[in-house]
Amino acid sequence: MLRKTFKLLNDLRRLPTLLENVANAANAASASQAPASFTPSVNDPNRAPNPFYRVTVSHLSAFMGLSERAKAALDDMSRDEGFSGNADPSILSLIDALISGNAKTRVLQLGTLVGFSTVFVAGALQRVSNVTGSSVRLDTVDCDAPKQARAARYVNAAGFGDIVRFHDGFSTDQKIIDRLRDETYDVIFIDSSHNYSQTLIEIDIYWPKVRPGGYMLFHDAGSVAANYDPQKEGGVRKALDEWLAKRPTDLHSHMLLEPPYWANPCGAFWAVKAAPTAVS
Ligand SMILES: C[S@@+](CC[C@H](N)C(=O)[O-])C[C@H]1O[C@@H](n2cnc3c(N)ncnc32)[C@H](O)[C@@H]1O
Questions:
Q1: In a domain? residue 29
Q2: 171 Cβ inside 6 Å of ligand 1
Q3: CATH code assigned at 166
Q4: How many angstroms does the Cα of residue 159 sit away from the middle of ligand 1?
Q5: What pLDDT digit, counting tens, does each position of 92-135 carry?
Q6: Is the CB of 198 under 6 A from ligand 1?
Q7: Considering its fold, how many domains does the chain have in total?
Q8: Cβ contact 168:148 at 8 Å
Q9: Using a 6 Å cutoff on CB, does residue 201 contact ligand 1?
Q10: DSSP 181
Q11: Range of the domain at 243
């Protein structure tokens, strides 16, 4: 009797370990059944989302047909400590309209951060692909490799892993220039250093890569955003003013978007590359 009681107590003592083993086995089984692209949350779900996120996502989701899966990935991203400084609804809805309304298929972004604009741009490209059957791609560049690695996880979780190629490095690095040497783009979105001299170099390198009839867009091109220049040299706006003063011959048209004509105080800029006129 005493021996039986002792065995029972011993079994009970092992029960938590047994239960843990069963739970681990169940988790391993469900993980192996999950779709290959599924990425579990990387953030504490109890961590409050960045306050800007609620405004941005509710605004954007109303316009853009992002899947529930993509919205869940954004929700997770909003709890990322690096989620700050992302693009705003005004510029993202413009880019979305330019891509989807004109069936554009090739996009380059400078400045990935943790992937917020990346998910929206990829979503617009995905819609184009769904409708036209075209192959679509977004190349995105960032010098902060750890943040960009997190962006890749969110983009996979959103279901856009096949569309996006991530490039680690500065937009002005020779290795990035070499990697993108043979590429041209329908849309280039610049949201990177915000520094005047870097932006001038980026325009020099990347404007020639815009296809005829394509667009180059800049975030933070308003006069207020000149303060975002870490070197206080005048920011994106000064670089654009200088570029425009040179009157590039292949610039068809441009628009500076800032208050009171533009909802976001940081402003934006949109340049259209001239296309050869049709000869009858
Ligand atoms: C404002 S954040 C980009 C936000 C992103 N577009 C979004 O909406 O989620 C700027 C990013 O540009 C990166 N960056 C700064 N200078 C860069 C450069 N010269 N080349 C590439 N990335 C750069 C920073 O590491 C940062 O992640």
A1: no
A2: yes
A3: 3.40.50.150
A4: 22
A5: 999 999 999 999 999 999 999 999 999 999 999 999 999 999 99
A6: yes
A7: 1
A8: yes
A9: no
A10: T
A11: 51-273
